[in-house]
Design goal:
Blueprint lengths: L2 H26 L6 H26 L1 H7 L1 H21 L5 H8 L1 H14 L5 H19 L3 H5 L5 H22 L1 H4 L4 H25 L8 H29 L1 H6 L4 H13 L5 H18 L11
């Protein structure tokens, strides 16, 4: 595997780890911070931190930004304003296990979208890898008990989460489809302009939320939650994800989404003292095996690329 691919996959893993923490924050603070407030202030803080570093590059690359034009607004609407606002809204009315289950649709949506939009139909190995990883995810969700799956119920929050997954799949695919317009723009500058365009798109929904009386207390814990989502789930994760999609493609990048419940379980063990059970190890092992099957090329194709 080439070094660029290694860095890309490492970045995808880092992004998923950061977003696993984001999922924990969304669940833990669902009753404390309204969804659009969390989304708005998260991106405002991230933009404030990033802007001093990207103001110069944004000006120097203004012609490339102009060439990308309306495509940047679409990406900002999907990746900045849309996905996380939908996820935080879903967390208000659905269980964590349902969010995890709905997230399993992301690789399938991305695989099909990559074929239809990009003409990049994944190879058979990737489909088998996706299937194996999906089995491992179901083991995690069900805790190794089939009755847990048959007893699941779905509600409005699950439908919102399904929209969020479709939103993110389209964002990832368009990053790849519009690469010729985006590659000339440095990663930090691209993230900065997406934030600049995305925050105003969230503002009307946040103002409507305020008008409905939904507010949050500026406590230490609430501010720390916003700080985490701004630095790690926004700056670090988005830079790593965008780079990974550029290098390995949207379909392979989407497979890393299966690792989110694994990392969530590990973070729960480390931070919350939740024990790791046999089904965690079994499900996690199947997911890793599926990812290796779906993303690594046969040894015969790797000669001279180690």
């Amino acid at each position: 595997m080439r070094s660029s691919s290694r860095y890309a996959y490492a970045g995808l893993l880092l992004a998923v780890i950061c977003w696993s923490g984001n999922a924990l924050v969304a669940r833990a603070f669902a009753g404390e911070i309204p969804p659009f407030a969390l989304s708005f202030w998260r991106w405002c803080l991230a933009l404030t931190l990033l802007l001093p570093f990207v103001a110069g590059p944004l000006w120097r690359h203004r012609q490339q930004l102009k060439d990308a034009g309306w495509r940047l607004l679409v990406l900002a609407g999907l990746g900045i304003a849309g996905y996380n606002s939908l996820l935080y809204s879903a967390a208000q009315t659905t269980a964590a296990i349902n969010i995890t289950l709905v997230n399993t649709c992301l690789p399938l949506m991305t695989f099909i979208g990559a074929g239809l939009l990009l003409g990049e139909w994944p190879q058979r190995r990737a489909w088998w890898g996706m299937g194996l990883a999906a089995v491992g995810l179901l083991v995690l969700i069900s805790q190794g008990r089939w009755a847990s799956l048959t007893g699941l119920a779905f509600n409005q929050g699950d439908l919102i989460m399904l929209l969020a997954v479709a939103d993110w799949a389209l964002y990832s695919l368009l990053l790849r489809r519009w690469a010729q317009f985006l590659l000339p723009i440095p990663p930090l500058a691209l993230l900065g302009v997406l934030m600049l365009l995305g925050v105003p798109l969230i503002l009307p929904f946040y103002l409507y939320e305020l008008a409905q009386g939904a507010r949050f207390e500026a406590s230490v814990s609430n501010l720390a939650a916003i700080g985490y989502t701004a630095v790690f789930a926004s700056l670090v994760a988005y830079l790593a994800w965008n780079h990974g999609v550029r290098v390995v493609g949207a379909a392979k990048a989407a497979l890393s989404n299966y690792l989110m419940p694994v990392f969530t379980a590990v973070l729960g063990w480390l931070l919350l003292g939740e024990g790791l059970q046999l089904f965690h190890w079994l499900g996690g092992g199947l997911i890793f095996a599926g990812l290796l099957l779906g993303t690594l090329r046969p040894r015969s194709l790797l000669n001279g690329q180690r």
